[in-house]
Structure formats: structure tokens, C-alpha cells
Amino acid sequence: MVTATGGTRGPAHLVLTAAVARRYYLDGRSKVEIAEEFSLSRFKVARLLDDARASGMVRIEIGHPGTIDVELSSQLMATLGLTHCVVTDTQEDEPASLREHLGAAAAELLSEVVTPDDVLGLSWARSVSAMATALRSLATVPVVQLTGALARPGVDDSSIELVREVARVSGGPAYFFYAPMAVPDAATARALRRQPEVAQAFSRIGSVTIALAGVGAWAPEQSTLYDATSETERAALAERGVCAEISGVLVDAAGEPVRSALTDRMIGITAAQMCAVREVIAIVYGLAKVDAVLAAVRGGMVNSLVTHSTLATALIEAAGRKAAP
Amino acid sequence: MVTATGGTRGPAHLVLTAAVARRYYLDGRSKVEIAEEFSLSRFKVARLLDDARASGMVRIEIGHPGTIDVELSSQLMATLGLTHCVVTDTQEDEPASLREHLGAAAAELLSEVVTPDDVLGLSWARSVSAMATALRSLATVPVVQLTGALARPGVDDSSIELVREVARVSGGPAYFFYAPMAVPDAATARALRRQPEVAQAFSRIGSVTIALAGVGAWAPEQSTLYDATSETERAALAERGVCAEISGVLVDAAGEPVRSALTDRMIGITAAQMCAVREVIAIVYGLAKVDAVLAAVRGGMVNSLVTHSTLATALIEAAGRKAAP
DNA sequence: CGAACGAGCGCTCAAATGAGCACAGGGGGG
DNA sequence: CCCCCCTGTGCTCATTTGAGCGCTCGTTCG
Lengths: 325, 325
Known about the structure:
Two copies of one chain form a homodimer.
Chain A (H helix, E strand, L loop, with lengths): L10 H16 L4 H8 L3 H13 L3 E5 L7 H11 L3 E5 L6 H19 L6 E3 L3 H9 L8 E3 L16 H9 L3 E2 L10 H9 L1 H10 L4 E8 L6 H4 L3 H9 L2 E5 L2 E4 L8 H4 L6 H6 L2 E5 L6 H9 L5 E5 H15 L2
Chain A binds a DNA duplex through helix 3.
């Protein structure tokens, strides 16, 4: 039975309730103390407090002390079943600035979650590079390059140094190599993989416990790999249902890896290896990547996210629609 | 490990804290449940919640559902040690409108706190009249007129009917009389007091348990009695420290009654009788009355207040300054 | 290099709290 | 007119929670 008038039980009752609520919630007194102070039974106090909360007189909010939207973060974490999740509060639309913010957030997250027992894997992505730039401290761990680089003409991110830079901050050994992410044919790829540096890095992939990656959508400007692929191949892959690209690994909307000729021409971590990594943290931005992120998470390729509030909201909404259509 | 900024313990910790806080404060889960859900010890959960509150991440506010500022009300109640207190949220400066609002609030308060065992006393004041106008329901109690009326020329509040009107709503007997609040000399006063109606009402004053009154400051336009007094007498009384007037009773800044020739010329409740009333509810408005209200409360003449937020704030501040100068 | 220190963690025990129950009083319907 | 339901109240007992303790581990200073 709900009182229709919303609890208008007289002003004195209202004021008493407020006083009790103040003592309890703001001054931290126990209900017994309050009961004694106001000459009430503790049950009465408890009921007063229940009323106060039910009538909306006591409002409790979870705030954000910094640039992180903690509410959205935990919601998204719960919705997608993530291990970690950081949602920044910036509603910036400019990609560069967004990337910088997310990079900083990811750097903080990494500083926090990486322990000396971990092995860190880094995929090649501008957002990961931004993370490296912002990284200030890191436990001493081996740092392993997971993919070849895919430098785009005219863009110098100096990100070939990515792994070395992070390893320098960490103080641990760096396993890196100079090779492209994709090569023209499978034979070249096989040859490259036999290169000592490449082979050495690859041999460490199995022991990686935490990896950082970007997530690309299979569309123009939404994936460096897409942009570097021939038009015929793009179309063919799209037809096979490719939805997302994570660290060179292509998956469909359900998150299942899509094998293709391109797979054999890649220099980098495989789908199976990526799934085996305990925690893959993806830095993602841009509303175009909603489906790609969902696919990556569903497929178990990604279990942690660093993103911005707009995308986070869209993700929660999309996941909700999927769950209960 | 250098944590430069206090409390910044990493975004993952922040998000976890937020998630725990949400479950606890918003979803009402027990700490044990939360501990199981997040695979933590219940102590860890408790510490997380302590952190969340200490760092200001959890904000708890006491809101006001209506026109009553419950926070201010209870603060004022605590500060002055009042029995009841109602502070309306109106910041109206127009006296008539203010009086109307306060009258309505007082009427609600009266409906709530008056029980069939009470005896209600009414003093003559425009604010009490406003209360009567707004009064809709009241337990069946005797209603006693406490003072003569002091009708000002040109102002018709039809408030001679005050006591009868309230008694009609209540359904109880009315003890009223037609006499002025002050007469030219003590002999006339004595004669008037012997009038049957007056004597009958006066004989009931001792049994009054709840009284309503206004509070006047001893200054022009701040007390009907002041305005009706000769200039010589005004000055003499001011010199004797008169600070406030409650229902015809004059008190100094400390709340002590000030006896004078005027006292003998008054038709109404005495200081001692007023102190004996269990609860005297004063309806007050206007910042000029800060000191008067403090005096009335200190002297024990008034133990409940109905007022507006501006005056309430000023009262709290003034009381605070007095307490710790 | 070792010891002192402080932070973080989980335990114990007592106090605080919640859920359900029994009882009293009051108002409306039979 | 009486009875029943409904609300408000305080009780008992099981669960939850808080305060203080000792432990361990990492850090820092001698």
C-alpha cells in the first residue's frame, strides 16, 4: 500500500524525519543513539528512515571525483561482464584529444593492475601509443610486442618505439621487432616470423597475461588494417561477416574469428592466443565501433575497456537491446 | 610507488568502489552479499565504502518534498532547542503573502500536534489569524482566547472571530471575549477582567497546553502593541531593555519579563502563565525580529517556531554567534 | 644489509540492525 | 451497536555490522 499523497503526514513529522535522517546519514550516528536523543524506540527511528528513503527525502548519489565517470564505468563493467572498465567523462568529439584522454586513463589503469608477475603485451594502435606517452610508472615486467606495425604514410607516431618506451618505464625486458602488420603474401609472412627478433617475441606471446589493444570496425577510417587492405579483399571479408579487428585478428558479429588468406599474411598474435591472455584491455572511441566492441567482448578477445561516456552509453544500450529485444 | 594525489588510488579501484557503493547505497544489498558478488571479504567491502564516503564519492542529501525546508527546520529546532519547528522555503518579501504561507504551515502543524487532550490558546496577531483562515481540521479541543484584540484603525481582519472560527473547525467549546489588549488605566483593566466572559476565558488559561502567538520586536511596525503605545512609554520601556513582545508580554533580551505600568493595563495572559504552557508556537517573519525571537525562546515563552527560511538562517547564525563569540 | 614502520588484510566478539510477530486503538461497514 | 480490518507500535531472534587486534608484506632509514 503506497500512500497516494506521497507521505504528507504533517510538517512536524516531516521535520522529525529530516532531523533523524540528518543524524543518521550525515552525522553517522547509530539508530540507537538517535532513538535515545529523540526519545523514540529504535524501531520508530528505523521506520522513519525507511520513510525518508522511500519518499525520496534522502537522496544518495554516487559522484565522480575526477574525469572518470565511475557510475557508467561500473554499469558497463556489469553489463558486459568485464574485468576492468574505465569510462572517461569527456564528451569531446575530436579524435586526437579523445585518444589522449583515453591513453592517460589507460596508463593509469595499467599502472594499477599490472603486478610484477605479469607479462605485458602491446598491440600496435594509435590509442596504445597514446597510452605509452602518458605512462608514468609500471611494475617491472617483460613487455612483448604482439603485432607488426602498420605505419600509415605521412603519420609519424614514433610508435615503432612503443614497446621499448613502455619497457623503459617498466624497467623490464622488451621483446620487439621491426616488421609490418601485414605483408603481401603468406610466404613472406612465414619468412618474417622466422626472423630471430620476431620469433623471440612470438615465443613470449603465450606467457602474456595482460595485453593492450585497440578495436577497429571493419569500415573505412575505423581500422588501420581495413584502410591498408585492397578493396577486393575488404569486400570479401565483409561478406564473410567480419565485424571487428582486434590487434590484427578479425572476428564476426558473434565474436568468432574469421580465418582467411589475410590471416596467413599477418605478422602478429593469433585469435586463439589472444583468447588465452588473461586480460585484454581495449582502448576504444567513436560511436561507429559499438558493434565491433560488442563482437570483441562476446568473442572473449577483450575483457576490459577504456572508453568515453558517449560510447559507453551506446554500448550499454546496444547490449540491453540485444539481451531483451 | 608514488601516489602523488591524495586518494587517487587508480581508476580500477575507483570503479570498484563505485560499483560497491552503488550496490550498497542504491540497490540496498548487504555488505556480505556484495562481498560474495565481488569476491572480497566483507571487511574489504566495508573499507571500500568508508573510502567512498570519506572521499566524497557518495553524496547524501536531505531534500525537501514540499514548501518546507526540512533541513533548516531541524537545524533551527536543534539550535534553539525547540519542540517543533517549521521553516517554509518561500523567500517572498511581501509580508501579506509570507503571512499567508506561514499561516498555512502553522495550520498544518496545529492539525498534526493537537490531540483531544489538549487545550488550545490563541493570542491576537495577524499571523494567528492567517493560521485560522488556513485551518482545515483540528481535534476537538477547547479554544481559549489569551489576549484582548488590538484592532488597528482601517484594518479589518475580521479577526475578532478568530477564536470562534478555530473552535468551529475543532468542534470544541470557545472561550472568547470582546475587549482590547490594552486599556488606558489599570482600574479599567481590573474592571474588564471581572467581566464574566473575560473571567471565564482567563480561568481556562491555566489549563492551556498549546498556544499560538506572534512575536513582536520593540520597534515601529514590528509590534502592534508598540504602535499602540504612547511615545513616552515606548521610550521608557525600551530603556528598561524591552526587546520582544509575545502576546502582550514584554521581555528583555535575556527573555526575562519586564514588569511596568503597561503590564497592569493589559488584558491577557501573564508572563508566568505563558511559561507554564507546555508548548507555545510562534509564527514569525521579517528579519527585524531576530533578537526578539531569540529573547522569547531564551525566556521560555516560546518553544516552537513557524517561520521562513531567511529568518531561520539569520536566527541560526545569530544563535551561533552568541554561543561562540 | 637489517630493522623499524606503516599499510592492507582478515579474524573475533560485541553492538547494531532487520524481519517477522503480537498487541492496542480507532474508524467504517454490517 | 458491535466487529473487523488497518495502522502504528514495540518485542524477539537471527543476521549484519563495527571496533579493535594480530598478521604479513613492502618500504625506508640507519
